[in-house]
Structures are given as C-alpha cells and as structure tokens.
# Entry
Amino acid sequence: MPSSTTIAIIGLGYVGLPLLLAYARKGFTSIGIDIDSAKPAALLDGRSYIKHIPDAEVAEALAAGKLDATTGFSRVSEADAIILCVPTPLDHHLEPDLSYVTGTLDAMLPHVRAGQTISLESTTYPGTTDEELVTRLQKAGFKVGQDVFAVYSPEREDPGNRKFHATNIPKVVGGHTSACLAKGVALYQAVFDTVVPVSSTRVAELSKLLENIYRAVNIGLANEMKIVADRMGIDIWEVIRAASTKPFGFTPFYPGPGLGGHCIPIDPFYLTWKAREFGVHTRFIELAGQINRSMPDYVVQKVADALNEDAKALKGSKILLLGLAYKPNVDDDRESPSYTLMKLLEARGATVQYHDPLVPVIPMTREHPAYAGRTSVAAITDTYDCILLATHHDAYTDFDFSHFKCPVVDTRNCVARPPQKYYRG
# Structure
C-alpha cells in the first residue's frame, strides 16, 4: 500500500487511537474522527487521553504532519481506507445494540466515494458486515467488490499489555469478496506484523466471538469452582496453582468479582442472540454468563460475612472499594464489575468510597451515569469498616495492610501483606 494512502479511523477509544497512531508512525496520513469533541481536541493539542499511551506519541505524529483529528464525517471523503472502531454494547435486555455502528455508517455514507476500502473492527455477531455495511453500500449504488471494498477485521487490543500491542498481534481479515479480501490484507499488512486472511467476513466475525467466549466460559468455570472450594474450606488459588503444574491439557483461569472490559462480558450475548435466529439455544455459553454475572452478589455477601465476623452490619457500614478499572494497571473502566459492586453495596445501606490511582475521577459512562464525577480518596486508611479489593493493581499488591484493624476482602488474591482479618472474596 503506497505511503501516500490516507487512512480515516472512526472511533478514537482504546482500539481506535492506538491504530491511528500506528498508521501515522508508518508514514500514512491519518485522520481520526470521533463524535466526542474532547478527543480530537486533545490530539490536536498533542495530548493523549489514555494513560498507557504517552503524550509523546501523539506529539510526534503531529509534528510529522501525519495526524489530524476532527468530529466531522465529511473528512471521510479524503480517505482511501476507512476503519470503524465504534462501541457495540448490549441493551438492557442483553441484546446487541448496533446503534453506534449503524449511526456511524449513516453519517459517513454521504461522503463515501468509489475506490475506498471500508473495514469494520467492532465486535459483533456473524452477518453484521453483510447485513449492515454491504447492504447500505449497495443501496447507495455501489458495487461492493468493484466500486468499494468491504472488510471485517476484529480488534484484538489488550490495553496495558506490555508484550502485545496494536501491531504485533496477528490480524484476522475477512472480505465480502476476494477483491475485498485483497484490499483488506493490503490495508493491514502495512502496519501489522502478521495478517491472517480468512474466507469470509462471517468467519472473521465468529472468530472474535469464539476467542472471547472461550475466556468467558473458562472464567465462569473458575468462578463456580471458587464457590465450591469456599464451601468446602479449600483455597481455590492453591488448587489452581497445583493444577497449573501439569504441562499439558490445562490452562489456568482465575476467579474474580465479575467480568469487565469491552469484550468478555458482552460478546457471548452477541452470539446467543444471533444463534436463536437459527433455532439454536446456546445453553453452555448462557450458563457461564449467568455464573459470571452473579459474582458481584457473591462478593457482596462475602463483605457482609466479614462485617458480621467483626460484629457489624452491612447497613450503615463504611466500605472502601479498591480499584475501579476492570483490569490491573490501566485506567480502563469499561464494564467494570466495581460499578456493580458499588451499586449493590449502596442498595444494602452501605456508604461506599473508592480508591484507584489510575482513575482519579469517575468519567461519564453509559451504564452508570450517576457515578460520574465521584473522586477517588487520596489514601488507603484504616478508617473504614471494611476494605474490598476488586482490581489487582500493583499498588495494592505492594501495599502493607498488615497493621489494619478492619477486615479486608480480597477478590483477586493479590495482597502480599494481609491484615489479621483477611478474607478471599
């Protein structure tokens, strides 16, 4: 793909921004588009709004004249390739919400021109590229595979992963036609170390769901085993360590307070919803989902039990929740179970504060707008009735709780120096 190619990336979050910078580093003119005006403004000022992406990367791309950012969809017309990295959440009925995808397609379509390659990266059910992207292009008078080229390539971004980043993770690519596939492979070979072509967009769509359903199901198993082991008085973490010594046939997965992130809590339901259209009831996947979604209730009960051992009730207690991000050492709070834990604890009469060195202020979220603006406490102190550790940041592993008098419920088995009243939740 010639270096004169212009790339437009729509959606500048944890997936879109690293991709935008990757193309800019390779010398491509890169235009970022996002409806949140704060993001283009930050980029044009040389600032990153994602903590694990340094400001210097943005400033370098700007200085090279390879980065631009806007809220205007009319800039799509300048691009040779357009990549969509927009959210695909669930609605309140746990059914796919494609409004961000369809809204983006409708906004950009008046500016699409012949010769462009359009790639969807948002995780979704098999058939979305055909049913939403291709159908719209055809209705607009384009011959897909001749005039324009439709591609699906699932994102595999893992925020904060020091080993794998945007361009060294193998990139699966499926095209609507063979010509579309060739365009998609060329688009991604320009920046990715390895590109994995597949026979269709539906194969690519389902491959992403399989990856995350595999994790969701195995985490569900680990969570259920935690409950069983707890009832039996057995340390599940020691069990997992022992099982992990087997050099074949076992991959360790770990229990927690619930699922978080933009993929694992959501993706299985995209497949279960679509499978019903084909008369298939995905019982195994749905059971894992039920177990994982029930874990916050289990954790809250563990907090209540810890308080009871301390001769206190949950109602009226002051709880400090450690960790708002959904995974350690990043500022990514998407779908974090910590929000559910806060909601459940407050519903039972507790007063909840939180501490997170990477999330000093709760941002506006789709699911929990009432928490927006709440701030992290400055320090971890022994002035609470109970401390609940939900995210295993290094800061908490290194923290010395040994002198604390209040109980600590650790859902991640990460506290190195626990207090006397220590519970694994």
Q: What stands out?
A: The domain at 219-424 is CATH 3.40.50.720 (Rossmann fold). Residues 25 and 191 are 9 Å apart (CA to CA). The chain is about 35% helix and 15% strand.
